Amino acid sequence: MKRLLAAFIFFTRLPFWRIAAVPSECFKHVVPYWPVVGWLTGGVLAGTLWLLAQILPIQMAWIGAILVRLLVTGCLHEDGLADFCDGFGGGTTRERTLAIMKDSHIGTYGVVGLIIYFLLWSQMGTVIPLATLCAVAFCADVYTKWCVSHLINLLPYARKEEESKAKVTYSRMTGAEILIGLLAGGIPLILLLPAGLGWACLCPPVVFLLLCGWMKRRIGGYTGDCCGAAFLLCELSFYIGVMALLWK
User: Fold this and answer.
1) Dihedral of CA 7/11/12/18: which sign?
2) Which coenzyme or cofactor does it need (predicted)?
3) Are 87 and 101 in contact (CB under 8 A)?
4) Residue 84, Cα to own-chain centre: how many angstroms?
5) Would you say 208 and 145 are in contact if contact means Cβ atoms under 8 Å apart?
6) Do the Cβ atoms of 145 and 233 come closer than 8 Å?
7) 157 SS3 class
8) How many other C-beta atoms are found inside a 10 Å radius of the C-beta of residue 159?
9) Is the CB of residue 27 less than 8 Å from the CB of residue 5?
């Protein structure tokens, strides 16, 4: 239970830390519970969208919902995407790539990466109908976090623990944690994803595996920034897959 609480503390900026003190060891096991946290962040995204759409055009409601999720997560994943773009865009060696990613300053690649990402993500509100977008928003958040959570099982951590930004390295999942993640990530797809959109579920795993291969070649593993970037890029691929299916 404390591992689950640690996940909510780590992946959101809501005051879950007031509930109980969590041992530092628990933060090594937060990634398997990432999809469970997605029920909160995805629910906030979808719920805010639906509420705002009652008084605003869907395009504005979608942008408002995006802003609320950013507030809830503290832009944790977006910071990772910016660092990932800077490191993998500007680094030419493993050491240089890791050094750039650890630098707190954002560079050109990071700025351009975030601009392109938000431009693409914000467009979903202009194409996908409200009811479908609410369901997709929840499913995309939860399912993609389940996909990307397996990064810690497939690749080693690219830095030493003391060199980590969060001063923690994630432990690989146990069988029980794999099952928890599977249930948390899969149930929304079964219950909420509209008929005919199931093919979009193939997009995140494909993008995830491509990113894993790139990370392995460039830095020999993953970092926390890689986790955040992989989540956002895989989530975006889910939306694009849905948009492509609806466009047909």
Assistant:
1) positive
2) Mg(2+)
3) yes
4) 13
5) no
6) no
7) strand
8) 18
9) no
What does the alpha-carbon distance between residue 48 and residue 26 come to, in Å, rounded to a whole number? 31
Contact yes or no for 142/38 (Cβ under 8 A) = yes
Q: Which amino acid is at 172?
A: R
CA dihedral 50, 74, 235, 62 (to 10 degrees): 30
Q: pLDDT truncated to tens, each residue of the chain (248 aa)?
A: 788 999 999 999 999 888 888 888 888 888 999 999 999 999 999 999 999 999 999 999 999 999 999 999 999 999 999 999 999 998 888 999 998 988 888 889 999 999 999 999 999 988 889 999 999 999 999 999 999 999 999 999 987 665 555 556 788 888 888 999 999 999 999 999 998 899 999 999 999 999 999 999 999 999 989 999 999 999 999 999 999 998 86
**3-class secondary-structure state, position 93:** coil
Residue with tokens 């929840």: 138
> Which residue reads 């980590």 in tokens?
164
- Residue 7 vs residues 24, 34, 65, 88, 158: alpha-carbon distances, Å: 12, 7, 22, 27, 21
